[in-house]
Write a structure and sequence with these properties.
Organism: Microbispora oryzae
Shape: globular
CATH architecture of the largest domain: Sandwich
GO molecular function: allantoicase activity
Family: Belongs to the allantoicase family.
Pfam family, one: Allantoicase
Number of domains: 2
Oligomer: single chain
Pathway: Nitrogen metabolism; (S)-allantoin degradation; (S)-ureidoglycolate from allantoate (aminidohydrolase route): step 1/1
Structural class: mainly beta
Distance between the termini: 31 Å
């Protein structure tokens, strides 16, 4: 699996923030982590010049380089970085590097230390997507993008595996299916319109694009997705949210659980029902109390016959 299939740990809608930058004279730093591709409208000028959907610094007339610090919304192990110079054709930086660090609590940008290089200084081209694989198993909370000497970058993507602070979660009721707690979609029948990992994202979906939606089925089957949960635990409440899906919500849904620890590595999972096939309504937040005490490590959602879901929440407790 290519690393770009993993969640973007820096995404603004996942809680990421560009907390500091050396300069943002032409275009604001916050654009680096916006969702979606950068847009551009030529001959659109403001007080700072041509308007760019990205981060752009002034032309440096002194030694040094520009930089931007990003606090990851989802701390974890970084598997790859994407530096996108879309629309920056005569004003892109010729080189860039990326550093990362891990910090506890809520430090200010100036209090961060222990930076390590995860992407060495590398050449960039204009109006181009650059992918850099990262091979470092450590958990990071912040990254710093360095550009040499100056210029514009449209988007910074930091793909990886979420690693939450497990000590903070112990003993609490948590969402075992939350991306921010380490859950991840491991299988899916269809993702024609949008990524299934959207259903695990933080917050509420603002529109259909921020949920999961499949193509229309014509074969008599049904769509499904499987989720590796944040850890072994018991589920007390299932929430199936079809908000924004008014004419394309599933008609019914069912939920199953499995404990992969009992099947062994790579063995078949023994699925058992958590929620029987149940009718759903469009544009509705459905909540169901579950009464099965068996621990689960994975969950499977079946929707009938097709459609979409805004969010899937599985509230429960992690095993000690």
């Amino acid at each position: 699996m290519t690393f770009t299939r993993l969640p973007d740990l820096a995404l603004r809608t996942y809680g990421g923030s560009v907390t500091a930058a050396s300069d943002e004279s032409f275009a604001e730093r916050d654009a680096l982590i916006r969702p979606g591709p950068a847009t551009f409208q030529p001959h659109t000028f403001g007080a700072r010049g041509q308007v760019y959907d990205g981060w752009e610094t002034r032309r440096r007339r002194e030694p040094g380089h520009d930089w931007a610090v990003v606090r990851l919304g989802l701390p974890g192990v970084i598997r790859g970085v994407v530096i996108d110079t879309a629309w920056f054709k005569g004003n892109y930086p010729p080189y860039a590097s990326v550093e990362a660090c891990a910090a506890g609590g809520h430090p200010a940008p100036g209090e961060l230390d222990g930076w390590v290089e995860i992407v060495p200084r590398s050449g960039l081209g204009g109006d181009r997507v650059h992918e850099f694989r990262v091979d470092d198993p450590r958990r990071f909370t912040h990254v710093r993008l360095n550009i040499f000497p100056d210029g514009g970058v449209a988007r910074l993507r930091v793909h990886g595996e979420v690693v939450p602070d497990r000590a903070f979660l112990d003993g609490l009721t948590v969402d075992l299916a939350a991306l921010e707690n380490g859950a991840l979609v491991t299988g899916c029948s269809d993702e024609f319109y949008s990524s299934p990992n959207n259903v695990l994202a933080p917050g509420l979906a603002r529109d259909q694009s921020e949920g999961w939606e499949t193509a229309r089925r014509r074969d008599g089957g049904n769509d499904w997705l499987e989720v590796a949960l944040a850890g072994p635990g018991t589920v007390a409440v299932a929430e199936l949210d079809t908000t924004n899906l008014k004419f394309n919500a599933p008609g019914w849904a069912a939920l199953s659980g499995a404990d992969a620890r009992s099947s062994g590595p790579g063995g078949p999972r023994a699925w058992f029902p958590l929620l029987p096939r149940t009718r759903l309504q469009p544009d509705t937040r459905h909540r169901f109390r579950l009464d099965d005490p068996r621990p689960v490590t994975h969950a499977r959602l079946d929707i009938y016959p097709d459609g979409g879901l805004a969010r899937l929440r599985l509230l429960g407790s992690l095993l000690p």
